[in-house]
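Bug: token stream looks shifted between consecutive jobs. Job 1:
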Amino acid sequence: MGFVTVGKENAQDVRLHYEDWGSGDPVVLIHGFPLDGQSWERQVPGLLKAGRRVITYDRRGFGLSSRPVTGYDYDTFAADLNALVEALDLREMTIAGFSMGTGEVTRYLGRYGSQRVRAAAMIAPIPPYLLKADDNPEGVPGTVFEEIVRAIRADRPAYLKAFLDDFNNVDKLHGSRISDQAWQAQWNVAAGASAIGTEACVGTWLTDFRDDLRENDVPTLVVQGDEDRILPIDSTGRRLPALLKDARYLEIPGGPHNVPWTHPEEVNGALLTFVRDTGR
């Protein structure tokens, strides 16, 4: 367990918690909303067995990281990632994001380039641009996100219950791919996160990543379930191969948003093959 300081708020350090295991070329795993770095537990062992160094970390406001009231935007999230990368002096790395973590992957490459990056992976991606607009008709209406903010303000724990049901497609996959205990563990992490950060993150989902995608010059794996209820696949994953210079794309039939947990065989197979094919 380690911490890296990424800024200050008043007299307090803003610190990111991270875990760093193994040796070899590094793979940095960036979690989704509203979880933390532990959510990669079904991917970490395979990567370690494949001879990779694996780093997970908790986004500000989540897990064991600091809970400031500021900095919930992708410029800051990418700067936080960059601070971690520089502190650990990571090179020849693969950066892999799930859900909201795919925004860090994309903005990091857009702002800091690929000098330290060998490859990237986006699982259940939020790019290219989630908000419906005149120049983005494939997006989601803004009223959807306004409703989410209202629900969080009204009763955050109740919102998280409904969110995690759709996150895992519980009505279809309960008992087969998501247990009561696994769902409860996710809820515990989500409920324990910063209330301010939870609400503030909703606005970040509307970030336009199209310019960042143009700067991505590394091989990029895109994986998404075709029954994703959180980030509609027609607004997100299916659009990315046409916007990336070197994309490898996999759709998981029947997969919900949280495919790293519910479909680890498919996700791990794709990720391990990709890391092997793009590694040394």
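Job 2, same session, no restart:
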Amino acid sequence: MPRHISVAIDKFKYKLLYAAIFGEISSMNTSQFTQLNGYSNLFLGWRGEDDDMFNRIRFANMKILRPPPTTARFKMVKHDHESSNKPNPKRFSL
């Protein structure tokens, strides 16, 4: 099953940001990725593509596995978002 690995990140006070998240650090095998038709090319900029992947996984009747937050704890590396990578305002309608 696809795995959402980064369930506890310092930036989010080591709590799952929301139940339908499938971002930051995740993994799946090639067969699963192919079955889900990969990531959409419709998302420009930051945000949206991870939520879309969550929905693809759900609609394919796959279960997302998550390790316990006591094990999957991460510290986010500081990085600047490029100005061209602003959230796509159409991401919710996609």
